[in-house]
Sequence to fold (288 residues):
Amino acid sequence: MDDTTNQNNKRVSSSQVLPPIDDLRQDVENFRVFEYIGEEKLSVKVCPNGLPGIVFQHYNGKSGIQSIVTKTTRVSQIPTLYLYGQVTDLAVMNFKKGPYIIIQVVLKPHALKTLFGIDASTLTTKRYDGYQDFSAYQLNTDLINAKNTHECMTLLTKYLLDKLNHAHPRDRLIEESLQIIHRNINTVTVNQLIEQLHISERQFEKRFIQTVGLPPQFYIRVKRFNEAINMMDSGKYERLSDIAQALNFYDQSHFIRDIKEFSGITPKSISQKANQFHYDEIGASYLE
Fold:
């Protein structure tokens, strides 16, 4: 568990990443728990990571998020429980003063289709609220009334297991393509994928968008961006040009363009914000 402290050395927040049970590992990356008891409002910039998910957040049954803003949208009525799809732009999450708790279920890229039967493209840069489209009113009520975080986790796990038991047909070819992308992010191309999977480019793109919510080329760009941030965070590379070369960016300008597009800042600025920039296996974010 990671703790954040203020100048008076009092804990104001804590975060924890927990693995799913074995039965859910095919569709769930992990659970993330964040508790905040500070008095200041927070604005967190969240970079695209290629992963959809579920968010439950509240204090006394009321939302702890004031607004979510991207380049093209601003949402100010945030439900305590919502489902979100792929995010294509940098998102700014504006939080209210504490206290509040946030539990995020980070889903696999294909899980909107398999667990919920949703054409993932309909949720790209969008969210479904917890009362109507998401069809989880009782879950939201039970989560709000839960005695502690452990009980919330139990409720969410039970809900996901129920979805799994009524799962929709998997697109095994697209799930295989995702594994290939993740294993070969530094070199993979769409042409290589369609050749290896023996499918036409048109059919591959159509099925990929329905299952993942993004065109395959854009998804590769997002994952390559995240791998670049991972490499920058590792401290193993002295020059940014070495990272660009290792990830087979066309040139340095394309590398800088993608970093700036998805993070809002240049690679050099990320290095300078090292103490503010948070990166893990799920993605990157930083305080505004």
In short: Residues 1-11 have pLDDT under 50 and may be disordered. Residues 2-165 form a domain with the Jelly Rolls fold (CATH 2.60.120.10).
